[in-house]
Structure formats: C-alpha cells, structure tokens
Design a protein that fits this description.
By secondary structure, the protein is α/β, with parallel strands linked by helices. The chain has helices at about 30-40, 65-75, 95-105, 145-155, 175-185, 195-210, 245-250, 250-255, 275-280, and strands at about 1-5, 10, 20-25, 45-50, 55-60, 90, 110, 115, 130, 165-170, 190-195, 215-220, 235-240, 255-270, 285-295, 295-305. The strands form 4 sheets. The chain has a 7-stranded mixed β-sheet with strand order 12-11-10-13-14-16-15, sandwiched between helices. A 4-stranded antiparallel β-sheet has the order 4-5-3-6. A 3-stranded mixed β-sheet has the order 7-8-9.
C-alpha cells in the first residue's frame, strides 16, 4: 500500500505481516546479556518475572531459527542456555497480535502522565495529563522500561525548564513528542522514524491527542533529513533507540542541539549506559541524570551554553536507525 504523512509521499509499504512469538526461561543473573544478544534478531523484546522465573519474550517477523538463537545465547551465557524443549513458539496473525496488544495494555500512570489505549473509557485521575496511545506496529506505549524512563525524564524536566523546539528521533508512536508538547503548550515537535508505518501511527496518535497541529511527523534515517542537520535547531532532543545508533549519531545530535539544550536518550541497557554517556561527552554534552528501570537506563544530558564547536566527523558511514518503534513495548 502507498503511505503518505502530511502530504509527504513515503512510498510503498508491505501489508501487516504475520508475526512469531518466542518465549523461553532465562537465569535472573543473565537478563542483561540475553537482551543484548537477541535485540537485533527481534522486532520486539521483553523480559519479566513470572512465578519466580525470568522469561524472555520475542516478537519476530519470520519463523525463528531456534538453533541459531540457542547458538547466540550459548555464546552470551554459556551452559545456562535453556534446552530446546524450553522454547515456546507461536505463530500470530498480525491482526490477532494487534488486538491482543490492545487488550493487554492497561492504563498506567508515569509521573504526571496517564497513558491509555482507545479501548479504555475511564477518565484520567485528577491532575494527570492523558496520553491516548494505540501502538499498532510501532513501539511506545509507556510500559517498556525505556519509554517509561523517558516519560519520567520529561516529567522531571518540566518542573524546571521550558522547551519550544523538540525532536523525537526514532519516534515510534510519537508518545514522547506528544508528551512534550502537552507539557509545554508553546512547544512544537518534529517526530521522525525510519519506518513509514511508524510515521503513520505517529501522525494518527498526534491527531487523536489534539496536538496534530504541533507535532509534525515524517521519515528519516538518523539525521539524514536536511532540516535535522541545522546547527542548534532543537532545544530538546528525545531519542529512544538503541545504544549503537545513539553512539554513532552523537556528533549529529550535538550539531542539532542548541547550546543550553537537553537530550533524553534511552533504549539502552544499564550495562551500556557508560559507553553512551562517554560518546556524548566527547562531543560536548554533560550527563545530568541517569534513571534505571529494570535492566534499562535513560540518560538526561545537556549541552553547555558556551559550546559552539562543530563536532568533527572524519567519515560518516551510512547506517540505519533501528528505532524502538521496531523493537516493541
């Protein structure tokens, strides 16, 4: 089907695919290692405790190769890898998966925000800012530790700061852009994702939340979109992606972020936080706060007001930003 967002033709995208769910037990001490090794093999991943046992759950767009998956795990955690009989594999029709996701998505409160799907009729608790989010095939409903951490960071920043120009990089559902413009009535946001379906979901969510006029959506592979490379364009950048792309894009982020601006980075495991913080320190950003929710970390950084040096990028290789729009939750 052909997809366009705000008049921008995004091209042809495939119909909603069938999906595969894989579940298997993991040792509690190995949660970080398991998530790190399986994230690129899945569209969505989660780890949670169930009746005293930690379980890893993956959503994949193709039939899983259990031999390869167990090989990856064996190299990460050694003899603790679960037996093949411990893996549960289920084929999910896309529509069944979407409906199951909606049913399983209860409203949650994160700071001042009350995140809920369209299936919830109850009014928000007094004093809370409602965020109506239906994920579709895009990531970001507030339940995942990375999205949760970003909402906490936005809530805390709103107590002391005012932002006007917001970028949501790898936006998924655009939950972060929507939360930002609802926090700061004078703000406008640009929400971009490499996935055209995520851009469509983002546009829909902005409209149903009454902020369609203040959240512009589109596609971009990292900062390749020309307007994203203007020096000092944004005073708040939100990026809930993955540790690798965050590190590689640090010079681009430093260019786009205004002096005195802030960045909220997530989608990384707590074991990866130091490396991500160091990559941004090298281009002039200072770590202010670190939030940890389960195995996930969220970093809040700032760019010094006197920092005007344009970061040098000797060679900028092309890479794809795999947003958490494609990583689920």
């Amino acid at each position: 089907m052909t997809v366009a967002v705000d008049g921008e033709l995004l091209g042809e995208v495939e119909p909603l695919p069938e999906l595969w769910q894989v579940r298997f037990p993991i040792p509690a001490d190995d949660v970080d290692e398991v998530l790190a090794v399986v994230d690129e093999a899945s569209e969505s991943l989660a780890a949670y405790e169930e009746e005293g046992q930690w379980v890893c759950e993956l959503i994949m767009r193709h039939a899983p190769d259990l031999d390869e998956l167990r090989w990856r795990l064996e190299h990460a955690i050694g003899e603790d890898v679960p037996a093949e009989s411990d893996f549960t594999v289920e084929r999910l029709a896309a529509q069944d998966w979407l409906e199951a996701t909606r049913r399983a998505f209860p409203p949650i409160a994160v700071g001042r925000f009350w995140v809920h799907g369209s299936h919830v009729d109850a009014p928000p608790p007094a004093g809370h800012v409602p965020l109506l989010i239906d994920a579709g095939l895009a990531f970001g409903t507030g339940e995942h530790g990375s999205t949760h951490g970003c909402l906490v960071a936005i809530d805390r920043l709103a107590r002391r700061h005012r932002f006007k120009r917001v970028l949501d990089m790898g936006c998924g559902t655009a939950i972060l852009a929507i939360a930002a413009v609802k926090c700061w009535p004078g703000a406008r946001a640009l929400a971009v994702d490499i996935d055209p379906l995520a851009a469509v979901t983002a546009q829909t969510n902005a409209r149903v939340n009454g902020v369609g006029g203040r959240v512009r959506t589109g596609t971009s592979d990292g900062y390749d979109r020309p307007e994203l490379r203007r020096t000092g364009r944004f005073d708040l950048i939100l990026a809930n992606i993955l540790a690798g792309p965050l590190c590689r894009m640090a010079p681009d982020l430093a260019i786009s972020l205004a002096p005195g601006g802030h960045a909220v980075l997530a989608g990384l495991l707590s074991t990866q936080a130091d490396a991500v913080a160091e990559a941004h320190r090298r281009v002039g950003l200072k770590l202010l706060t670190r939030y940890t929710i389960g195995p996930w970390a969220t970093l809040v950084l700032t760019k010094a007001r006197g920092h005007r040096r344009r970061p040098r990028v000797p060679h900028r290789s092309h890479f794809h930003v795999t947003s958490w729009a494609q990583k689920g939750g």
